[in-house]
Specification:
Elements (H helix, E strand, L loop, with lengths): L5 E3 L3 E4 L6 H8 L15 H11 L5 E6 L4 E10 L7 E8 L8 H15 L5 E6 L4 H9 L3 E14 L5 E12 L5
Parallel strand pairs: 5-6
Antiparallel strand pairs: 1-2, 2-3, 3-4, 4-5, 6-8, 7-8
Keywords: Transferase
Pfam families: Acetyltransf_3
Organism: Salinispira pacifica
Length: about 180
């Protein structure tokens, strides 16, 4: 892990994972509906412990904690894209269903973009989402990202009964560093 990250908003704390986060992580990554637009399958308690331990060693996944409850309510995925010289990061997120539609995701995503632009000196932050996932693309538009394209059959997370990929499209979003524009 490069450094300890700590961002604070009015209602949230965005930080690196700690070993004791596994139960909150399990609480939402064990819910089948979380995987409608995401790869993977609901986690067992043991899998949540292992994944959380791995995330403690990485800057790629960040905890989104509700200050008022001191509880992890979701996470951000933040990866620097190659080549490094392009100074571009990809942003993703998953939130517990009980904490969706309250503005937490937009608040966390906007805070991370500000951090990426001011501290990491990012030129651009990108994101991808399934066109059927309107709440996700509305978050991206709410934080100022622009839809840059519709990518047909970008990826698949599941296969049919015969093992054939079930492809899905993706919207591509991006926001440029306002200091560079």
């Amino acid at each position: 892990m490069e450094s300890d990250l700590y961002l604070e908003t009015d209602r949230l704390i965005i930080r690196n994972h700690r070993l004791d986060d596994w139960e909150d992580l399990y609480e939402y990554l064990s819910i089948p509906e979380i995987y409608r637009f995401e790869p993977g399958k609901p986690l067992t308690r043991e899998e949540a412990k292992i994944i959380n331990r791995q995330r403690c060693e990485s800057d790629v996944f960040l905890v989104v904690e509700l200050k008022q409850k001191q509880k992890m309510i979701g996470h951000l995925y933040t990866a620097r894209l190659k080549p490094d010289v392009f100074m571009t990061w990809e942003l993703g997120y998953i939130f517990h269903p009980l904490y969706q539609n309250r503005g937490y995701c937009s608040e966390a995503a906007a805070a991370y973009c500000r951090y990426a632009f001011t501290t990491l000196r990012a030129h651009k932050v990108t994101a991808f989402c399934n066109p059927l996932n309107a709440p996700s693309w509305k978050v991206l538009e709410n934080i100022g990202m622009e839809r840059e394209g519709h990518i047909r059959q970008k990826a698949f997370f599941r296969t049919d009964e015969r093992g054939n990929p079930i492809w899905h499209d993706a919207y591509a979003y991006g926001i440029l560093n306002p200091l560079h524009v």
